[in-house]
Amino acid sequence: MRRKNEKTFMIFCGFRSIAILSLFAVGCQTTRLPTAVRSSDNSSLVVQVSEDPNSLMWNEGRQKSKDLLNQRQNEQKSNIDEATLQMRAEVSLLGHMTRTASDHARIMLRSDIRNVRALKILIKSALIERKSHEALALTESALSFAPTDAELYSYEGLAQHQLGKPLYAKALWTKSLSLDPNHIPTLMNLAVLLFQNGHSKKAGAYFDRVLALQPQHLDAQVGRALVMSSEGQSEMAVVALESILQKTGDNVLILENLANISRDRLKDYKRAAGYVDRTLALNKADRRSIETAVGMKQELRKLMAAQEKKLTDENLRELAAKSIQSGVGTATEVPAAESNASSVELQQMEDSLK
């Protein structure tokens, strides 16, 4: 089993993305559950939140709001095409700006409610916000439009993994790979899942498949190094991770893994402390990483102090042992010398008596 302190990376979203149709308004506290009402021309759905005619949501200002919404949609359609909206949404996701990404996706869905690309944006937004059930519902909707889309099964697996159901996740990721054997986010997710559960050799095979497709895939390179460490090749793993740092510059995840390997596998506490200091020197380290590094630094100080004390005690025992051995040698040699002298004297006495 892999040591629990060794870290890999997060399960991957594999960025490309979903949306919920909604009308933003205010109303009374007694509104009924939302219901979806299809338009008369069967081209769109309107989410109706209240059936009460006295509700502030559905009073006489409703038509004005609807006209304003239509006007804005027409303006956006004329100024921004779908490809631009999608690109902006994906860039927003990279910056974890899920609300902005979702807004772009909703604009796309208003033009085409079956737009799977827009639904994927909403799914990824939900996954980033860890709204797992919402992601599952959206994925189910998207799969009804694209039942053979490997990426959607990959997202469904992510949602199941977030809900603490790794077996469901593994089955869905396997399904995804049956549709697209080269889907890199799914390959990475399976590799991480297997590694986290102690199947380092199988995990290594998936990391190798990713590297065969993308030799410069940094996360796969990190994973491969961790597999080496778990299989007893810790020094080689350190060399591999150091080479990645030369490409990326100091990186919290890699430094943390290097510190863990040095501490747990190699028992080189001084080297581990060096990696911790480099982590603390990073300006972009998040709070969790800083807290982890500070805790490890305190632990390493204790380990180094205990190691030095142990070495000192061992040195004293070795000196004592050498002293005893030296004393024993002298004690045995003196009687031997005395015995030889006595023998000579006896021989001389015998000779004189003759």
What descriptive keywords fit this protein?
2 strands, 14 helices, two-stranded antiparallel ribbon, 354 residues, mainly alpha
What does this structure look like?
The model is unreliable at 15-39, 44-62 and 329-334 (pLDDT under 50). The protein starts with 34 loop residues before the first strand and ends with a helix. It contains 14 helices and two strands; from the N terminus they run E-E-H-H-H-H-H-H-H-H-H-H-H-H-H-H. It is elongated and about 120 Å long. A two-stranded antiparallel sheet has the order 1-2. By secondary structure, the protein is mainly alpha-helical. A hairpin with a 6-residue loop joins strand 1 (35-38) and strand 2 (45-48). The longest helix has 67 residues, at 287-353. Helix 3 runs antiparallel to helix 4 (116-128), helix 8 runs antiparallel to helix 9 and helix 13 (269-280) packs antiparallel against helix 14 (287-353). Helix content is 70%, strand content 2%. It has helices at residues 62-79, 82-94, 98-111, 116-128, 132-145, 150-162, 166-179, 184-196, 200-213, 218-230, 234-248, 252-265, 269-280, 287-353; strands at 35-38, 45-48.
Short description:
This protein has helices spanning 62-79, 82-94, 98-111, 116-128, 132-145, 150-162, 166-179, 184-196, 200-213, 218-230, 234-248, 252-265, 269-280, 287-353; strands at residues 35-38, 45-48. The chain is mainly alpha-helical. Helix 6 (150-162) packs antiparallel against helix 7 (166-179) and helix 8 (184-196) runs parallel beside helix 10.
